[in-house]
Amino acid sequence: MRIPVAASEYPRIGAELGGAPTSVLVKPAGPDCNLRCGYCFYRGKETLFPPGQHRMSGEVLRCLVEQHMPPSAPDVTFCWQGGEPTLMGLSFFEHVVALQTHYGRGHRVANALQTNATLLDKSWAAFLTKYNFLVGVSLDGDAQVHDANRRDGASHGTWSKVANSIKMLLDAGVATNVLAAVTEESARCAQETYGLFQELGLRHMQFIPIVDPDRGGLGGRSAHSVRPETYATFLCELFDRWVLDLGGPKQTSVRTFDALLACYLGLTPPECTMHATCGSYLVVEHDGAVYPCDFFVEPTWELGSITTSNLATLWRSPKRQVFGNLKADLPQACRECDWLSVCRGGCPKDRVLGETPRSNYLCDAYRALFCHAHERLTALATQHSAQRARLSTGLARGFSTRRIGRNDPCPCGSHSKYKKCCGR
Ligand code: SF4
Ligand code: SF4
């Protein structure tokens, strides 16, 4: 789910072209990271691999690129994530691009990089701009909020470094999103965080609630987990700010709300949590092992390896289908819920309460948001449909449409440049 992709540039999640995934989430440095964030769920995955450094070999990378770019799949997305993928060094990503060029047969290739941004410098920025990488930077809010959890090995906060990197990336013209973890503390600063991100020049935001049942053992109530009631207030406040900015110069994409609006428009939402089943991408670990979801990198759900099988075969594997269908096994409360068509029971990783099929820890927060947002989303969807109808009527009458330049504003009204937006 944690794919750092701007709302306007979502990969076609769930699309199956020739029975192969269109999107892979790759962990070239496995769970290795130069930071020690308090809530990290991936660091514990070290136990799955031999001790020492974890780095993707040249041969695994070659297999990956070759298998993910078959002639039958013209549009493919590589999401580079971790751990911290920049630990691989810039030369690894230069090799990535060279391989993509080598195996490309008219493919349109999108690269996205999710990073803590502490290792980036001007050479990185130049490379990311040149090859049009979409960069997701992890930043949780202001220095106090961010540094509470996101610290380096010497326990120093990282806010200043990250804020400087964001400025450097934006100055260099890199398409940059922000991904913020929401804890019990940070959830109390919805307005401030949204305003700060805007001040930093970030117009695409993704918020991920921390639900940590493993260490707490109390259904998501570890120290870092956000409480449902706090998350409810956070979502509602954030939604109000998002609506306020719609259509104006500060229009901002907040992935959760974009996804909700997509549901109201009858479109497939870009959030896998809002799909009826799981399975919109594959995860490829540094050693070539493949899993169906970032949150389920565990022996039970290992589908196989790209070194002994291939992505298309693993994509079609019965185990992946079993995994995908688990999401549709809902508790009674969900099956009777008025919001089921948009919520779909949320993410299975957050279903930690009660007996199997378990209930979603964040259910109360979701219900609060859906009630709060329903009228405005309905109105927005109606307005949007009317605009589309007017546009298609205009086109049907033969109104001339000037060719849009790469640097013109996107016709979708996002105020982003056409070349960096959806072009709709
Ligand atoms: S478990 Fe399903 S809904 Fe949750 S992140 Fe994974 S694919 Fe998405
Ligand atoms: S709001 Fe709650 S009960 Fe309704 S579908 Fe979502 S998780 Fe289930």
Give structural attributes.
single chain, 424 residues, alpha/beta, ten-stranded mixed beta sheet, two-stranded antiparallel sheet, 14 helices, 12 strands, 36% helix, globular, binds iron/sulfur cluster
Structure in words:
Helix 6 links the parallel strand 5 and strand 6. Strands 7-6-5-4-3-2-1-8-9-10 form a 10-stranded mixed beta sheet. It has a two-stranded antiparallel sheet with strand order 11-12. The N terminus is likely disordered. 36% of the residues lie in helices and 13% in strands. By secondary structure, it is α/β, with parallel strands linked by helices. The chain starts with 22 loop residues before the first strand and ends in a 28-residue tail after the last helix. Helix 1 packs parallel to helix 2, helix 8 runs parallel beside helix 14 and helix 9 crosses helix 14. It contains 14 helices and 12 strands. One iron/sulfur cluster binds next to helix 12, helix 13 and helix 14. One iron/sulfur cluster (SF4) binds next to helix 12, helix 13 and helix 14.
SSE layout:
Blueprint: E1 23-27, H1 58-68, E2 75-80, H2 90-103, E3 108-115, H3 122-130, E4 134-138, H4 143-149, H5 159-171, E5 175-182, H6 190-199, E6 204-209, H7 213-216, H8 228-245, E7 253-254, H9 255-264, E8 282-285, E9 289-291, E10 304-305, H10 311-315, H11 318-326, H12 332-335, H13 340-343, E11 351-353, E12 359-360, H14 363-396
The structure holds iron/sulfur cluster (2 copies).
Major sheet description: 10 strands, mixed
Strand content range: 5-15%
Percent helix: 25-40%
Q: What's the order of the H and E elements?
A: EHEHEHEHHEHEHHEHEEEHHHHEEH
| Beta-strand segment tally | 12
N-C termini distance: 24 Å
Strand order of the largest sheet: 7-6-5-4-3-2-1-8-9-10
Provide mean pLDDT, rounded: 89
